[in-house]
Specification:
The chain is α/β, with parallel strands linked by helices and about 350 residues long. It contains eleven helices and 13 strands. The protein has a domain of about 230 residues: NAD(P)-binding Rossmann-like Domain (Rossmann fold). It is globular. Bound molecules: nicotinamide-adenine-dinucleotide (NAD) and UDP-4-deoxy-4-formamido-beta-L-arabinopyranose (WQD). The site of nicotinamide-adenine-dinucleotide (NAD) has 27 residues, from helix 1, helix 5 and strand 5.
Length: about 350
């Protein structure tokens, strides 16, 4: 299939493009490069042996979107394009609603004009409300405590309403848990700008000497070792989840929702110690106060995706750390030096 991949130059999108090519699909990347580098397209070619079409455009640019969908005879869309920093969304909510909600609306509008009705959407575990009832399943209560999270909830709601209004659509929301790791070639990985917000890239930058120590946000949570517990998923498994979702959803109308996670919760200290094994040294850390808005513990019940998509994670915690370390050590400044 010809697949439009919005945000395809980003962390998860780029690796999904490699897996799409490996499965015989043709990705067409549309990305504004607001949070990515053009070098990513060269890296995708290097890894997959095929250069994807790359259109530098904003997903809110309806005319470019319609033109791209037509010109490349697109069969289905995977919609990664969006802003994702929770703290920034609190400081600049208007940017998040415009980019993530308006972007999704313009995409639907352009797809309607061209007559394309298969869409896979990057949602997030952040749409779930805080609850002690773990693991989270697709029917768990939803509600979000950040503007970023609310953009994901709103987009899911919009897509569900679109399917209710025009039941021939097939729209799948994939609720990712915590994506980590890199492509095993070390050519593609996460390249955050400035100080990383997320745990794994921060640890990797400590390991490579760019940061002096990890600050662990809170050691008094009601978890086995007092640090926060999350469900980390290898980005390669996540990418494969998109292929499984496409296989399932193409030609199957409806609004589908799946958790993509491992089903296992890991603490900050457990992840840090696994990374230490991967890089061969123990990494410095200090305890800091809790980060506002953080939850103590959540992880996925991935059984719906196992049952219907025939998908489950294949990669271990050690794979996540080894691949993340290989990427970070071979690209200490991310894509910058290329
Ligand atoms: P990323 O920032 O690396 O990728 C997003 C890509 O979208 C970037 O390349 C960026 O340049 C592009 N983009 C953003 N706004 C755009 C716009 N208006 N038009 C065109 N391109 C635009 O992030 P990622 O980690 O790869 O995340 C991909 C998607 O998955 C996002 O929607 C994110 O919210 C969602 N998600 C990410 C995580 C995570 O922890 N990484 C977890 C759950 C959900
Ligand atoms: C994981 C754990 C922190 C950094 C975020 C978004 C969520 C989703 C995934 C997009 C927590 C601790 C972290 C650090 C630390 N993104 N930590 N020191 O918060 O689960 O989820 O990314 O949808 O929406 O909120 O991920 O990697 O930031 O944190 O101690 O320097 O690591 O407190 O327990 P989080 P994270």
């Amino acid at each position: 299939m010809n697949i439009l991949v919005t945000g395809g130059a980003g962390y998860i999108g780029s690796i999904t493009c490699v897996q799409l090519i490996a499965a015989g699909h043709r990705p067409i990347i549309l990305d504004s490069l607001v949070n990515a580098k053009a070098e990513v397209v060269n890296r995708i070619e290097q890894v997959s042996g095929q250069r994807p079409v790359f259109v530098q455009a904003d997903v809110r640019d309806r005319a470019r979107l319609v033109q791209t969908l037509r010109e490349h005879a697109v069969d289905a869309v995977i919609h990664f394009a969006g802003l994702k920093a929770v703290g920034e969304s609190v400081a600049q909510p208007w940017r998040y609603y415009d980019n993530n909600v308006q972007g999704s609306l313009v995409l639907i509008d352009a797809m309607r004009e061209v007559g394309i009705q298969t869409l896979v959407f990057s949602s997030s575990a952040t749409v779930y409300a805080e609850t002690l009832d773990q693991p989270l399943h697709e029917g768990s209560v939803i509600s979000s405590n950040s503007p970023y999270g609310r953009t994901k909830l709103m987009a899911e709601q919009i897509f569900s309403d679109v399917v209710a209004a025009e039941p021939t659509w097939s729209i799948t929301a994939l609720r990712y848990f915590n994506p980590v790791g890199a492509h095993p070639s070390a050519c593609l990985g996460e390249d955050p700008q400035g100080v990383p917000n997320n745990l794994m890239p921060f640890i990797a930058q400590v390991a490579v000497g760019r940061r002096s120590a990890l600050h662990i946000f809170g050691n008094d949570y009601p978890t086995p070792d007092g640090t926060g517990v999350r469900d980390y998923i290898h980005v390669m498994d996540l990418a494969d989840g998109h292929l499984a979702a496409l296989r399932y959803a193409h030609g199957r109308p409806g609004h589908h929702v799946f958790n993509l996670g491992s089903g296992r919760g890991l603490s900050v200290l457990e992840l840090l110690s696994a990374f230490g094994r991967a890089c061969g040294k123990s990494l410095p850390y200090e305890f800091s106060p809790r980060r506002p808005g953080d939850l103590a513990a959540f992880w996925a019940n991935p059984s719906l995706a196992e049952e219907l998509l025939n998908w489950r994670v294949q990669r271990s915690l050690d794979d996540m750390c080894a691949d993340s370390w290989r990427w970070q050590s071979q690209n200490p400044n991310g894509y910058e030096s290329s």
